[in-house]
Amino acid sequence: MDDDLTVSDVVRRYLERAGHAVALAATGEDALAWAAEHSPDLVVLDLMLPGIDGLEVCRRLRERSAVPVVMLTALGEEEDRIAGLSLGADDYVTKPFSPRELALRVDSVLRRAHAAPAASGVLVDGDLRVDPAAHRAELAGAELSLTTREFDLLAFLIAHPGEAFTRERLLHEVWGWDFGDQSTVTVHVRRLREKIERSPAKPARISTVWGVGYRYDRVAP
């Protein structure tokens, strides 16, 4: 969905050429209505939409599903990108952008969302339980609502307790990115802390290693 019909048409043609079925929505309201009825595999979301803006669309999508979201943002609008990632978007492409790059980003997000999990058992740390095979995480018996990116990051960290990772390495190891904005990692760590830590401001599980990045510390002996 995009507020510029020309851009939307170009994006549609590139994604269809890549083998995807594409539906266009001109406004945020139309997009939400269509998504509720058809449950798409992925949403390409322009943040500059008439009516309900893209950030609000992303927020409402996240209230009802974990559908992957790739945002289109204006070059230099870092606050919008961080806000979108904080609301649960999985990736972003800045305008002006290459439609081919967007198609590759879409393929990457879909591949991660549908990838067969690595062979491993359930990962348990106290009241936190992560099942990679079922793509399910629970805290104190309640299922956690995690995006694909959040789940992948949590599963990776809990599988490597006590090891410190740079943001750059997490981008590569968890999501397969050889480039990208490292603030993406920071935003996803913050969101995970809000969901798994008793006190997100004083995290016990996902620790910041100053000058390095992040480390998962087990709370159970």
From TrEMBL:
Residues 120-218 form the OmpR/PhoB-type domain. PROSITE patterns: OMPR_PHOB, RESPONSE_REGULATORY. Residues 1-110 form the Response regulatory domain. It comes from the Bacteria. InterPro entries: CheY-like_superfamily (IPR011006), OmpR/PhoB-type_DNA-bd (IPR001867), Sig_transdc_resp-reg_C-effctor (IPR016032), Sig_transdc_resp-reg_receiver (IPR001789), WalR-like (IPR039420), WH-like_DNA-bd_sf (IPR036388). The modification 4-aspartylphosphate is found at D46. Keywords: DNA-binding, Phosphoprotein, Transcription, Transcription regulation. This is Response regulator transcription factor. It comes from Actinokineospora soli.
